[in-house]
Amino acid sequence: MSERTSYAPGTPNWVDLGSPDIEASIEFYAALLGWEVPASENVEQTGGYRRATKSGVDVAGMMPLMQEGQPPAWTTYVSVADADATAAAVKEAGGNVLAEPMDVMDLGRMAIFADPTGAVFGIWQPGTFPGAGLVNESGSLSWNELGTRDPGAAKAFYAKVFGWDFADNDMGEMGIYTEWKLGEGSVGGMMDVSGRLPDEIPAHWMAYFAVDDADATVELAKQRGGGVAFGPIDIPVGRFAILTDPHGAAFAVIALSEAA
Prior knowledge:
By secondary structure, this protein is α+β, with helices and mostly antiparallel strands. It has helices at about 20-35, 45, 85-90, 150-160, 215-225, and strands at about 10-20, 50-55, 55-65, 75-80, 95-105, 110-115, 120-125, 140-150, 165-170, 175-180, 185-190, 205-210, 225-235, 240-245, 250-255. The strands form 2 sheets. It has an 8-stranded mixed beta sheet with strand order 9-10-11-8-12-15-14-13, covered by helices on one side. Strands 2-3-1-4-7-6-5 form a 7-stranded mixed beta sheet. The two termini are about 15 Å apart.
């Protein structure tokens, strides 16, 4: 299994779902991805936050929506060495602070931001909790992708905040696909969604979850009240589809190729 106990600063390390109905979301994702989502301990301290597991290892989080009018959505978090220094870098680079750095018991320190193109993301300074303990296996996080209408602004922002470089790849009819690079490794991707998505859909980070069979997962999602926004189609690294859960939160599933 692809188990992880730490993440280099600048690496996406966690995703969580804001849901208007935690129990319904648990039922959907448990059926789709094989998760177990035990009841949270210290509910008063955690606000009902729950951690989903696969094979007994943490893979994602779920929490109630915090504000009226907040849309159900998945949030991508990036591991950092210093949450406060990162918050300062976000402000200097033109981003917005939606939630200032705060301690989460002894687990770590977090903050929520919006980049200059409008995409919301979080950061996590690890304490006792490093992030997802399992990645790139069926039912676990495998990729994080920014959809934006201003790739140039995004490149400048994330380079300043996380030190990311980038590699652009010509995907033919699909346009230019950007890989975010940290050193020699790829830590995520980016697509220009101009003209591809309705204007009312803002810039966003998409979480990809690995599955054994993309087509079967799509059919199961439909049976469980989810929707299909795109695919499934084949790409060089596997077969993927973009889905929505019964509350409208978008996410992707991918059956990874052996090469990937």
